[in-house]
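Re: that chain you flagged

S.,

Sorry for the slow reply, it's been a week of failed gels. I finally had a moment to sit down with the sequence you sent. For the record, here it is as I used it:
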Amino acid sequence: MVDEDQDFQSDTLVNPQALTDTLDALYSVNRISTLAHLLVGLVYAVFQFQNDKFISVSIWYSSVVAFLIFKWFLVRGYNRREAGVENIGQWLRRYRLSSWTLGLLFGSVVLFFHPSDDAARQMFTVLVLAGLAACALTLLAADHFSYAGYAICLLSPVVIYAVFVPEILNIFVALLVLVYLLTLIRSSKRLNEIMVSSLALRYENLALLKDLEEEKNQLDNRLSRILNDSSNELYIADAETLSCLQTNQGAVENLGYSPEELSSMTLDDIIVDLNREEIHNLINPLRENTRDSLSYKTLQKRKDGTTYPVELRIQLSAREKPPVILVTALDITERDEAVKKLIHQANFDQLTTLPNRYYMFSYIRSAFARAKRQNSKVALLFLDLNDFKDVNDTHGHAMGDHLLKMVADRLKSVMRETDTAARLGGDEFLLLLEGLQHREQAEVVVHKIIKSFTEPFMVKANEVYTSASIGISTFPDDGNSVELLMQYADTAMYYAKKDKSTHYRFFSHELRAYIDEQLAIENRLRHAIRNKELSVFYQPKIDTATEQIIGAEALIRWQNNDLGLVPPAIFIPVAEKYGLIEEIGSYVIEEACKEAVSWRERTNSDIQLAINISPRQFRSSGFLQTVDRALETSGLAGSSLEIEITENLIMQD
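Prediction finished late last night. Pasting the C-alpha cells below so you have them in one place:
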C-alpha cells in the first residue's frame, strides 16, 4: 500500500494541493455513485424477487445499503478532516478499500444469484455488472487503482463462475468479460493519465502565476519605497466629492498645473477614462472593507491636453473626517515601452529588423486564412545564401553580419508591399508572397531577387558578390500546413542549391516522390545498420613488378533482401544527407582495421590498408577518436593505415 501511495503521489507530482484535489475528486462523486448503486441494486433485487429468492436477495441488498451508509459516513469524515497532507495516504487507502468492497458486493451476485439453467437471467446479471463498470470509469478516473480494483472485484466473479461451471456459454461470456475488463482497466489508466497531466498543467500554470505575482509584488514594493520621490504623483482627495485636497510636487510637474489649479480640480478631471460615478464604483470595495487597496491602469491628461499612462494605487482612510482616498499615480510610460521592446525583440530579428521564425509561423497561418477567404494562393520562398561561409571565413563575422543586413534591405527593395520577408537564422531567409492567382506569379519576384543579386554588395568599402538558392512551395497547391510547406520550400531550396544549373526550384510531385524514395532508402539504411546488412569488401593493390599484393582499399557494400545489391552511389549520398555517414564510416574503419591485422597474421607481410573518408565524417569532431579507437582495439599500426580524402575536400577546407 505504501508503494501505491507513492505511485499516487508521483502521478500527481507530489504537489500537496494536487494530492488534496485528487482525493476531493474521488470523494466528491460519492453522491452520484451511491445513488447509482442504490438504484441499480434495487432494480436487480426486484428482478430477483420474481425468482423466489426474496430472503437471500433482501440480505444482499440490505448489505449494499448498509455499506453505502458506511461509505457516506466515510465521505462525511473526509470532508470534516483537518487540513493538511499528512493523512492523505490513509484517506486514499480507505477510499480504495471501500471501492473494492463495493465491487465485491455487487460482483457476488454472480456466485449467489446466477442460475446455470437460465441464460436470460445470466445475461441480465452480466449486463448489470458491465454497466456499473462502465459508469464507474469516469467517476473513479482520479485514481487508477481504485477503479482497477473495483472493476476486478465486480467482473472477476463472472470468470470464476465459468471455472466452476464450465459450460460453453459461461466460458465464452467469461472470455468476453475478461476482454471487456482489460479494456476498461487500460481505458482507466489512460483517462487517469490525462487527468493527472491536466492537473499537473494546472498547477504548473498556478505556480507560474504565483511567480509572476511575486515578481509583480516585488516591483510594487520597490515602487512603494519611492512614493515620496517627487517624480511620483500623490493625491489626497475627498472620498465623496473626489476634490483634490492635497497634491505633491510630482503631480504639479507631471500634469503641468499649479498647486492652486489642482486644488480646484477633481480626480475625474485628471483621469481620462473614468467619470465620477465610475470612480465611486471603483473604490466601493474599499468602502466595504473587502479590499485594503486597489490598483488601476489608466491615462491621465496634462494641462496641454496630452495623455500618458499611469498605474494608480488607491487606498481609503475612513478615520479622516471626511473620509479621504490616497491616490499614488506612477508614470508607466517607460515600463510600457520596455514591454513593447521585449515583444519586438521576441518577434523580430535584432540584426536585420526582419520578422523572425517565431513571428512568421503565426503570420503565415493568418496569410493562409486570408487566402482561403480571397480564393488566392500564397507562396513561401526559402532563400539561402550561397558560399556565405566563405565570406565569414575570409572577411570575418562582422562583415558577414553587415552583408546579411544589406541582403535584408535588398530583399525589401524588390518585394511588393503585400509581401513579407523574414530571417530564419544564419543566412536563411523566408519570403511570404500573398494574393497570387497562379504559382508562376512567384517567379516574377524570384527573378527580381536573382537579378538584384547580380550587383555586388558594398560591405565596408569592399565589393562582395554572392548569390542565393531559392526553394518555393505554394498554398494550397502543395498543402495547408505551415510546417509542411516550410519543409517543402526548404527541400526545394536544397535541390536548387545542389543542381547549380538554376537559382530556384518549385516544390513538385516529382520532387516529393524523390524525397519519399530518399526517405524509404534512409529507413532501410537505418534498418541495415541495426541488422548488420552492410559489408566491407577489399580491392587489392598489386605491385606490377613483383605481382604481389601490397595493399587493399576498403569498400562498403549493402546487400538488401528487397533491393538487392544497392550501389554506394545511391545510399552514400542518403547517408550523408540524413546524418548516417559517420556511423557507417566508423563501422568501416573498425572492421577494416581488424581485417588488416588478420592479413598480417596470415601472410606475415605488411599490407597497407586504404579507407576513403566522407567529407562530413572527416569534419566531425570525433573522427580522430574513431581512428585512434580502431587502431588501439585492432592492434593495427598507424603507419599501415591510409586515409583517403577527395580533392574537393582539400579545396573546401
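What I noticed first: The longest helix spans residues 168-225.

Talk soon,
D.
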